[in-house]
Amino acid sequence: MSITTQPQSPSTDQLRSSVAGPVLVPGDAGFGAELAGFNVACTPDATIVVGATCAADVAAAIRYARTHGLRVGVRATGHGAIPEGHGRLIVTTARMNDVAVDPVARTARVGAGARWRDVTAVTAPHGLTGLVGSSSGVGVVGYTLGGGLSPLGREFGYAADQVRSLELVTADGQVRAVDSTTHPDLFWALLGGRDGLGIVTTIEIGLVELATVHGGGIFFAGDSASDVLHAWRSWAPMLPEEAGTSVAVTRLPPEPNLPPPLQGRTVVHLRFTHTGDPGRAESLLAPMRNAGQVLLDTIGAVPVAALDAVHMDPPGPLPAVDRGATLSALPAEAVDAMIAVAGPAVDSPLAIVEIRLLGGALRRTQGPANAVTGRDAEFAVTGIGVCAGPLGDQVDSHLRALTTAVAPWTSGALLGFCGLPAAERAALWPAETRARLSEIRRRYDPTGTFSPTGSDQLE
User: CA 37 from chain center: how many Å?
Assistant: First the structure.
């Protein structure tokens, strides 16, 4: 008779004595809560979890992982999937959420676990803001290193363009200061390349002087989808850079906290921001107000600290899967193809199917060169499916149908919106950029300590 035994996890006594934060293994009280995040479609698991409180904790965890042959992942807010499982040590950074603002220099120094709401709370009193995304609950570091697409991006560029410096722990367990002059190759790769290079513990970002925008949303009845989307595709590219917009077919739950006209309905949600004169903003928006049957109009003055009100992303955890692509053009045929597979008439598990206008300052690197993808794209398409309910098991097939529908116009994808597994993300960059990223990863992490795929590079 043979007896099969499971691999034994290494002793954590030394690690526990080396870090100030908690060290947890499966079966410990708080293990699941430490790994839990916003996207509950991910089933968290790891051999060891370290709740880091500072860069020294991160460095000690990485050195321990190297000694014991464990790969390393990092988790902040848990909005995206991360590599997890047996044989992996996960560093959580939620405790590292300090934010320090220099209103004179117009910069903020942000800890690895901070969310955008933590930043806007301290920048807004100075009339400043970072390039926050559609939801202030998202972590600053992961969002920014992935590029960081803000509703303000057409005027100010990607969030990665505003990064001044980073504090990073590399695979050798060393804490490094990284900027455009110190480890410039690593700086270039982290901004837009993000993964497989180390764990960022602090990020310094530039801020822009902006207290309010004129914007919000217009919700149209689902029956107006074709008229609204076709009107939007002609109208949006004519907007000046100070205006940002997206439009989404949104399937809303019968949630009592939603405005009554929207509860349980499929709607078309036009989002709009303008950083200039409100009268000019209203003039620009006027052509869209009669594009379909309006259910609710929330356009008005929006404090930058309340920019969530523009997209109205779900505030609570969801079991969600997403997939996205960038488009070089949005002809009528592309809109019709999207409506055919994901429009209001389709019985679909996709809660949101969004088209976002790119261009403007997003085309141009605003600071030192970086590895951000998608600068040549005109639009970004993203589908988000909820893996629950009667159609939850069909999310993947509906996302594939969406990306197939827009394939004739697809130019690539944004790292933060691609929804691709790690092994498939390399195709987002052209061959020369991909080769440079791989060379830098091999140089700073030759044994693949941070590799999500278990190899020494992401190719």
Answer: 14
User: From CA 413, how far away is CA 4, in angstroms rounded?
Assistant: 45
Residue 27 and residue 60 in one domain:
yes
The verdict on residue 432 lying in a domain is no
Nearest 5°: CA angle at 322, between 166 and 310?
Answer: 75
Q: Are residues 270 and 240 part of one domain? A: yes
Q: Is it the case that residue 275 has pLDDT exceeding 90?
A: yes
pLDDT in tens, 247-257: 999 999 998 98
Is residue 447 in some structural domain? Answer: no
Query: What b/e string do you get for 334-366 counting C-beta neighbours within 10 Å, with b at 16 or more?
Result: bbebbbebbbbebebbbbbbbbbbbbbbbeebb
In this prediction, residue 451 carries a pLDDT of 80
**In contact, 152 and 210? CB cutoff 8 Å:** yes
Residue 7, burial from CB neighbour count under 10 angstroms (0-12, 13-18, 19+): exposed
How far apart CA 109 and CA 223 sit, in angstroms, is 47
Answer yes or no: do 345 and 241 share one domain. Answer: yes
End-of-domain residue from the set 142, 176, 209? 209
DSSP for 353-402 reads: EEEEE--GGGGS--SS----S-TT-SEEEEEEEES-STTGGGHHHHHHHH
Report if residue 434 sits inside a domain.
Answer: no
Question: Which residue did the predictor score with more confidence, 386 or 236?
Answer: 236
Find the CATH number of the domain harbouring 87: 3.30.43.10
How far is residue 334's CA from residue 235's CA, in Å, rounded to a whole number?
15
Q: Are residues 245 and 167 in the same domain?
A: no
Confidence band of 442 (pLDDT split at 50, 70, 90): very high
Question: What tens digit of pLDDT does each residue of 346-379 get?
Answer: 999 999 999 999 999 999 988 899 999 999 999 9
Q: Looking at the whole model, is its pTM more than 0.85? A: yes
- 297 and 378 inside one domain: yes
Give the whole-angstrom CA distance, residue 148 versus residue 191: 10
CA distance 437 to 196: 10
Domain count, the chain: 3
